[in-house]
Design brief:
ABC_AA/LPS_Transport, 254 residues, P-loop_NTPase, six-stranded mixed β-sheet, alpha/beta, ATP-binding
Length: 254
């Protein structure tokens, strides 16, 4: 059974068809690249999986359960975490505090125990220890107690990954993690994603415009164009697919 199963998903915004009967699967332990020109529907799909959008039709299952029946706040507890195309960190919080936010879904606290500070100290210490371990893993420990505001963009991208990992996900959604990075940082990021997949025993769904990175990193690549799937397969096959070449480069016909 696939970990993530997207079946005939259609999303309409008024007269705009953002996704058109999209179907594909992500297997356990797989890195799946999701690519396509701007406006192809990639982020729309991410927003469906993370339950920001409700599809017009179709189904999405995660580990055999109906994902569309889960509210947005329940996806992290189910085992799905994501990063964002535009950074979604809290600038005034420290790096460690931002990472601790990612562990909120596993908190045993409720509004009453938090308000009365009942049994919160031990849990705060546990979350800080987990955050510290993730920051060490990603080489960010020297920034742990600095506010995110003012840190280099590449560093902040890694902080977002640490925060997502703090939720202990089974599926990690990475939305253009290489955007704004230097060439050397892109190479380091690819190595990091490979290591994360192995060390944390998770699957990755990757939206990215950096084609060399996607083709070198992914086990499987799904290509969208105007909300419709035009290719789905191994990177070598997708790279040479005439429909993919035309979507990116045009037909060349005047």
């Amino acid at each position: 059974m696939a970990l993530l199963d997207v079946a005939d998903v259609t999303v309409r915004f008024g007269g705009i068809l953002a996704l058109n009967e999209l179907s594909f699967v992500v297997e356990q332990g797989q890195i799946c690249g999701l690519i396509g020109p701007n406006g192809a529907g990639k982020t729309t799909l991410f927003n469906c999986i993370s339950r920001v959008y409700q599809p017009t039709s179709g189904s999405i299952s995660f580990a055999g359960s109906d994902l569309l029946a889960v509210p947005a706040w329940g996806t992290a507890r189910l085992g799905i975490a994501r990063t964002f195309q535009n950074l979604a960190l809290f600038p005034s919080l420290t790096v460690a505090e931002n990472v601790m936010v990612g562990a909120h879904s596993s908190s045993r606290q409720n509004w009453l125990t938090s308000a009365l500070r009942i049994r919160t100290r031990r849990e705060d210490e546990e979350q800080l220890a987990r955050a510290w371990g993730l920051l060490q893993y990603l080489g960010l420990e020297q920034h742990a107690f600095r506010p995110c505001a003012g840190l280099p963009f590449g560093t902040l991208k890694r902080v977002e990954i640490a925060r997502a990992l703090a939720a202990s996900p089974r599926l990690l959604l990475l939305d253009e993690p290489a955007s704004g990075l230097t060439h050397s940082e892109v190479g380091e990021l690819a190595d990091t994603i490979r290591a994360i997949r192995a060390d944390f025993d998770l699957s990755v769904l990757l939206v990215e415009h950096h084609m060399q990175m996607v083709m070198g990193l992914s086990d499987n690549v799904v290509v969208l164009d105007f909300g419709r799937k035009i290719a789905d397969g191994a990177p070598s096959a997708v790279r040479d697919d005439p429909a993919v070449i035309e979507a990116y480069l045009g037909s060349g016909v005047a």
